[in-house]
Write a structure and sequence with these properties.
This protein has about 110 residues and is mainly beta. The protein has one helix at about 45-50, and strands at about 1-5, 20-25, 30-35, 60-65, 70-80, 80-90, 95-105. The strands form 2 sheets. The protein has a 4-stranded antiparallel beta sheet. The protein is globular.
Length: about 110
């Protein structure tokens, strides 16, 4: 999962990322991605649902914009237990990224 981060006009955010938090529940079947300082998004829940429709890991996607808090929350419900690695990729040439690497959890 790669999240390209932009500014409030939708232009790529260069060299920095806002605050974010990613939580995997104990069953390893749900990932919650909290993005602070996110006043709007060009991404919709329907667009994400279509994007993840053929995913071998993601069963359901929810996206909530919390405009009063300038935040967004994305919830990924998984088809099976998942292990997660998260990387920040700031760039001075293209949108800074949050990369969430999904792998089958070891039993």
């Amino acid at each position: 999962v790669i999240l390209d981060i932009g500014d409030r006009e939708g232009k790529p955010l260069l060299n920095k990322l806002g605050y974010f938090h990613i939580n995997v529940d104990r069953s390893q079947r749900r990932i919650v991605i909290d993005l602070s300082q996110m006043s709007s998004s060009l991404v919709t829940e329907m667009g994400l649902t279509k994007l993840f429709a053929s995913s071998p890991y993601v069963a359901k996607v929810e996206l909530n914009m919390e405009s009063s808090e300038n935040a967004a929350k994305m919830v990924l419900t998984m088809k099976q237990p998942i292990a997660v690695e998260v990387f920040q990729m700031p760039s001075d040439k293209k949108a800074s990224r949050i990369v969430i690497d999904l792998k089958k959890a070891k039993p």
